[in-house]
Amino acid sequence: MPNESVKIPQATAKRLPLYYRFLKNLHASGKQRVSSAELSEAVKVDSATIRRDFSYFGALGKKGYGYNVNYLLGFFRKTLDQDEVTKVALIGVGNLGTAFLNYNFLKNNNTKIEVAFDVSDKVGTKIGKVPVYHMDDLEQLIEENDIQVVILTVPASVAQTITDRINKGKVKGILNFTPARLSVPSHIRVHHIDLAVELQSLVYFLKHYPSKDQ
Ligand SMILES: NC(=O)c1ccc[n+]([C@@H]2O[C@H](COP(=O)([O-])OP(=O)(O)OC[C@H]3O[C@@H](n4cnc5c(N)ncnc54)[C@H](O)[C@@H]3O)[C@@H](O)[C@H]2O)c1
């Protein structure tokens, strides 16, 4: 197995779930090896990048043979902690929040939304099997449910106040869908998903780099 102390670059780490999902499907279909060209075609990452990524975890494909699917799967499962479920709370059960609750994250993933919070008449209901609680119980339920990650789908105006409340618990990561830029202590990592920015960026690339091969 690869040397676990090796630090994988962030760009590589971000592609791991993509590789993992594809390899799991390959494995399920009984395939034992895969070439970087096949992988490249399936996950839409160029094969030189795939070879470099895989070299970080000691998977050196052989010419004419490719990579051993079992070996790679074992590595990904370990690296992505697939055996351990990370418990997630969602705050803000509006348009976006409701859609996320109805989506079964566990299907392809190692995360589970355990609890949701709001201040509206959604409180006391269940959406996608997830109970919706009032914000008054936020700190207590985050603690009791061992929540490590929070998805924020509230109006931007309340995002920072809520973040300040989360900061005191065991939460390590926030997935922020609001346009607000959040201040957090150093033990918390924030990933900001701004759909407007992503869309603008896509349009920019389409204009300036019309084909991905150029
Ligand atoms: N809907 C989209 O397509 C979309 C896309 C990108 C980003 N966003 C952003 O995501 C966030 C949510 O968007 P939306 O369309 O779902 O909004 P929404 O108004 O439908 O939902 C917001 C939810 O937050 C709840 N809420 C309000 N104050 C709260 C508080 N103090 N504590 C807990 N819950 C509270 C509301 O009751 C409501 O259920 C916004 O910041 C929005 O800018 C939305």
From TrEMBL:
List positions binding NAD(+). Answer: 92-97
Keyword Transcription assigned to the entry: answer is: yes
List where in the cell it is found.
Answer: Cytoplasm
A GO molecular-function descriptor: DNA binding
Give the source's domain of life in one word: Bacteria
Record GO biological process: negative regulation of DNA-templated transcription; response to redox state
Query: What SUPFAM superfamilies does the record point to?
Result: NAD(P)-binding Rossmann-fold domains (SSF51735), Winged helix' DNA-binding domain (SSF46785)
Q: Which residues bind DNA?
A: 18-57
Extract one GO cellular component term from the record.
Answer: cytoplasm
Which keywords fit this entry according to its UniProt record? Cytoplasm, DNA-binding, NAD, Repressor, Transcription, Transcription regulation
* SMART domains reported for this sequence: CoA_binding
Which segments constitute the CoA-binding domain?
81-181
What family, per the record? Belongs to the transcriptional regulatory Rex family.
Assembly information from the UniProt record: Homodimer.
Q: Which NCBIfam families match?
A: PRK05472.1-3, PRK05472.1-5, PRK05472.2-3, PRK05472.2-4, PRK05472.2-5
* Function noted in UniProt: Modulates transcription in response to changes in cellular NADH/NAD(+) redox state.
- This chain belongs to the protein called Redox-sensing transcriptional repressor Rex
This chain's source organism reads: Cytobacillus horneckiae
List the gene name: rex
